[in-house]
Fold these 4 entries.
Entry 1:
Amino acid sequence: MHYHFLAPAEFARMVAEGEFLEWAVVHGRNSYGTPRAPVEERLAAGQPALLEIDLQGARQVRQTMPDAQFVFLAPPSWEELVRRLEGRGTEDAQERARRLVTAEVELAAASEFDHTIVNDDVHRATDELAALMGCTPQP
């Protein structure tokens, strides 16, 4: 995963000129987007492209690339999701609450995706995703 940080004006220009495959304001605070050109270049070369995006982004990509396969990565349970979020210790209580509200909305939309992978074991979940992408899992 590569992040490129942009000034707000540059981000807005790229949105206005259609340079993002998808973009969103996440958790009501930060703008994120996937530049269109690198994804289209990979696909044109016959290579798979994996996007780690939120629900808003997936809905945008679905509109512009309806043949794409969409995979929902689900927690084993709500309780486990809360435990993992709290266990990270990287967000304060207000931010955890904001993220849990977002998670409720996203979990309710899981049926919009073509596949659901339950992230109960990272190696198994990774192998399942690799198989869906037609890739050979790494040992």
Entry 2:
Amino acid sequence: MKIGECTIMKRTKRYLLRSYKGMTLIELMATAVIIGIIASMAVPRFSYAFERLRFRKKNRDIVSTVKLARSMAITNKSQYGVYINGNDKQIILFKDIVNPASFTYDSGDSLIKTETLPAIFNYLGSDFTNNTIVFKPNGSANVGGSITTMADVSETVAIGTHSILASTGRIQSQSSYY
């Protein structure tokens, strides 16, 4: 190899290395199109996941309200209850002061908290008398049973079941999707 050829080879290598340092506009556009296609396929899955999360959150709110009623009954040594109004889709936490012996929600009972279920929710009912569960000062419930909710969540039906044990007042929840 001659001295002049070596210099030309070095210059050529440097030129080749420099030419591959950037991206062309076509490569950038192709990448943007691929990312757009993948994102458009993922968006429906995200909305499905958000609806399921919303259903689970509202069911946790129901459980939280029932647990709060039990906790307040134990703490304040008085009867507290939860009334489920299926027509208005409301869950009402109250202090049972008007007629404690009846274990029902009466118009004069002290309201503590009212929650409204979202429009997608359907209250399927409960096993409790008059849709009311009342907790005694020892934490037990006046009656055992379950609360069932349903929602139409992105082409599936979601059902939430919350079972309450009368002797201890403990609640156990389960969500199913069909």
Entry 3:
Amino acid sequence: MKTLLKTLSVAILSGGIAVSAFAASTTPANADKAQQRTEHMAKMQAQQAALFQQADANKDGKLSSTEFARFNELKKAAWEAHKQEFEKNRFARLDSNKDGSLSMDELKTAQAKRASFKHHRGNAMKPAL
């Protein structure tokens, strides 16, 4: 009987936590993030479908082991291109005075912003007691 009561108590408390988490996730900022995640997933799925079609040499809708190896090569190349573009954009964001180079002050400012973001994000992710 005690085990049943403990189980029910945990279930009720878990339900309350889940409701609180859901309520918090429906704020406008979280709705924007959810929309961004949805769009990102759709973009990734579309990219994967395009790579699949490109790798499917005989157009049978399936990948042989050779075609699968090609699919993986295409994915790696797409990832490398994405990383290079990200780094290029990152440099542009860090170069606050737009002089084409990064000073120590610009790097320190970026590091402070990043640390501040992590601090606030970390606190936002902790459940309220």
Entry 4:
Amino acid sequence: MKRTLVSAAVCSVATAALIYAGYANAKTDNNKVANIDNGLQSTPAGWQLVKQTFQLHVPKNGKALSQLIIDAPSTVAVSNDIDVLDDKGQKIKINISLKSKRIVIDFPEPVTSSTTKLQINLNKVQQPILGSNSIYHLSAKVVGNDVEIPVGIAQFSPF
């Protein structure tokens, strides 16, 4: 009985010391990040800068697109360095607004059904080297309508 009580006391003291040390020593630098979860410091994870590309198919008889909305996962940091190309590889003029993890790509000239697909290049994305897949949720707005229409997801694996 005493042995169990002593073991419980030792575990409690060790846990309290780990929580305090993790909280007091959380540091970050340009190449690594330390995360605090419930007061404990996790092992620093490496980050990498990547380019993520996906294609969006435009319906042939659909209305023209006025916006593309991309909800980025919490596990990545996305910049506003984004290119959108048409099916011939030509850059399309866009305006970008980045609000937290939401990217809004506004098309000054609506994208019509004559463009069968768009290639979206997210050029400077910081993602962890290890971890789960990054899943982006995509929606669009068509000309004359302010309703966001879900169009799918884009999923990327860490390296």
